[in-house]
């Protein structure tokens, strides 16, 4: 049970840290549209700050923005006990709910939510390079 609680903390912390840093970075842009600014700042944030250690078992690898479908993407690498497809799948709904609640409550994401942006969270295995352990996507109707 302790491992499950720690995973919730890791997920919540990673969302909050990335969202706050991304929001602060986008506030400094000038005449660009919100999508253009997001794309530029996501690329800049990734180049300057990634990989970023979120916890002992989670590393933020990159932050992306797709102008085609207005999606802010967070890509993480996981290690240790949570580097397991079975474990991630078993708790998928719980993780989905925790992140959805965090997106709803994150004031740092307000302008993106108002613009109807989507959010995606992808957790990749470290022991099986490139293997997606968990992928969660949120559309405006999911977090409104």
Notable features of this structure?
about 140 residues, alpha+beta, 5-stranded mixed beta sheet, 6 helices, 5 strands, about 25% strand
Structure description:
The radius of gyration is 15 Å and the shape is globular. A five-stranded mixed β-sheet has the order 1-2-3-4-5. The protein contains six helices and five strands. With 144 residues, the protein is α+β, with helices and mostly antiparallel strands. Helix content is 49%, strand content 24%. The relative contact order is 0.17.
Topology diagram in text:
Elements: H1 2-26, H2 34-49, E1 52-53, E2 58-66, E3 71-78, H3 85-90, H4 92-105, H5 110-114, E4 118-125, E5 132-138, H6 140-143
Parallel strand pairs: 3-4
Antiparallel strand pairs: 1-2, 2-3, 4-5
Helix pairs in contact: 1-2, 1-4
Strand element count:
5
Please tell me the overall pLDDT. Answer: 87
Give the distance, in angstroms, between the N- and C-terminal Cα atoms: 30 Å
**H/E element order:** HHEEEHHHEEH
Neighbour order of strands in the largest sheet: 1-2-3-4-5
Radius of gyration: 15 Å
Coarse structural class: alpha+beta
What can be said about the biggest beta sheet? 5 strands, mixed
- Overall, the morphology is globular
Helix amount, in percent?
A: 40-55%
Tell me what portion of residues adopts beta-strand conformation.
15-25%
Uncertain spans: none
Quickly count the helices. Answer: 6
